[in-house]
Design a protein that fits this description.
The protein is α+β, with helices and mostly antiparallel strands. It contains five helices and 15 strands. 20% of the residues lie in helices and 32% in strands. A five-stranded mixed sheet has the order 9-6-15-11-12, with no helix packed on it. The chain has a five-stranded antiparallel sheet with strand order 8-7-10-14-13, with no helix packed on it. The protein has a three-stranded antiparallel sheet with strand order 1-2-3. The longest helix has 20 residues.
């Protein structure tokens, strides 16, 4: 599931609306907007967590792999750089109270079901998300600049569960680095997962992860593809062709 979003509002429209609500001219509002943006960039790059008025705060961070020994610490341990946004409580309350409608479509684009949210409205806490997997630059910027990479190397990497569901009478294998991956396995973000499918005769298989279709290539009747493990618990669905539902067997 992904949220339905309207088109992105451009900067000029946002400045125009802000000028109308504040009573100042668009020129003054644009000058203030540009100045605030430059201040945020300058302070964030120095390692500060910078306030965004009415919204929350942002800072820079990174994800890094962990190692057991200080001598193994090197810059290649850094996998991704991140911009971390922490919303205000008012903004989180607004999201928690927002009604969500889920619409299901079939392959022809026809609506087959609609439901309205009845969840608890729990909002993810960015401050605690994957705390053990991150070497965050936000509050440790000065330490990072001084080469304090040993502390970063001691962070524990987070893993995410991959649920695998297979339908059809063909066969399929899911592997990582040549080793079989079973349903419920814990994987790191961006781990490369490979899929090999031998479908039922005359059938074309499909595979999706979290609802997004994986591109498959065919070679002598065997279809293969791969995807990078998302940074969240994920579901891989493999349809090997027509037939009864079948429990996934990594050695099939």
């Amino acid at each position: 599931m992904q949220p339905d979003l309207y088109i992105a509002l451009n900067q000029a429209k946002v400045i125009k609306e802000a000028a109308l609500r504040s009573g100042v001219s668009q020129g003054v509002m644009k000058a203030c907007w540009d100045a605030a943006g430059e201040v945020i960039k300058a302070w964030a790059t120095e390692g500060h967590s910078v306030a965004l008025p009415g919204l929350g705060s942002m800072r820079f961070g990174l994800r890094a792999k962990s190692v057991a020994k200080v001598e193994d610490v090197k810059t290649s341990l850094i996998s991704t750089r991140r911009i971390i946004f922490t919303p205000t409580q008012d903004l989180k309350d607004e999201l928690a109270n927002t009604s969500i409608q889920i619409t299901c479509y079939d392959r022809n684009g026809d609506v087959v079901k609609r439901v309205t949210s009845a969840d608890a409205g729990t909002v993810e806490d960015n401050e605690n998300e994957n705390t053990n997997s991150e070497s965050e630059q936000g509050e440790q910027g000065s330490q990072s600049e001084q080469g304090n990479q040993g502390q970063q190397g001691q962070q524990t990497a987070s893993t995410y569960a991959l649920t695998i569901s297979r339908t059809g009478v063909g066969s399929a294998t899911v592997t990582k680095d040549g080793n079989a991956v079973t349903s419920g396995a814990s994987l790191n973000e961006d781990d490369e997962v490979e899929i090999s499918i031998t479908p039922a005769e005359g059938q074309v298989p499909t595979a999706t992860v979290n609802g997004s279709e994986i591109e498959l290539t065919e070679d002598n009747g065997v279809y293969s593809g791969s995807f990078a493990m998302p940074g969240q618990a994920s579901t891989l669905i493999i349809n090997t062709g027509e037939g009864e539902d079948d429990d996934y067997d990594p050695n099939a």
